[in-house]
Amino acid sequence: MSLPAEARTPNLEDLESQIADLRKKVEELGPAQENKLSMIVFSGDMDKLLASMIIATGAAAMGMKVVLFFTFWGTAALRKPEANVEGKDFMSKMFGWMLPKGRNSLKLSKMNMGGMGTAMMKGLMKKKNAPNLDQLFEMAAQLGVEIKVCEMSMDLMGFKREEIIDYPNMEFVGVATYLNHSRKSINQLFI
């Protein structure tokens, strides 16, 4: 048995109600992804930090918003080489002593050879006019690359804010801040 024609054709009120329901569902999905790169910088190795900064500055130069989340071993790259912070407990002092003081003290992840590999890489970069870490951080700042530093990692390693470099777009945050950025990013990386 078939329905009468008027029963099969939705009326205007039904269509308006369906459209309103669809609009509400689309709004609940949240904003679309942005032209943004969110990167976790986990490693404290020179070559991996170089890769992170080259990718970050390249993405920023292409017009992408870039957010770097430095966590665990990566936070050592943000330490001021000359900083001597008082009032640390024994474990914090030990981490401070064992970990590199700043980005120019980092070692290669492979073929370090007691520091020879790192020196050779730095020499090769200079010879080939490749930007060093200081230059890459300067470019990143000029391009508006944001650095978010994991407060939990800093606390675990005994780092204090006053021993972290000055950088214009830096903020000390928790993981929720990174996750909020990454969920809206078209690209997410872990280095």
From TrEMBL:
The chain crosses the membrane at residues 49-73. It comes from Desulfomonile tiedjei (strain ATCC 49306 / DSM 6799 / DCB-1). InterPro entries: DsrE2-like, DsrEFH-like. Signal peptide: none annotated. Keywords: Membrane, Transmembrane, Transmembrane helix. This is NADH dehydrogenase FAD-containing subunit.
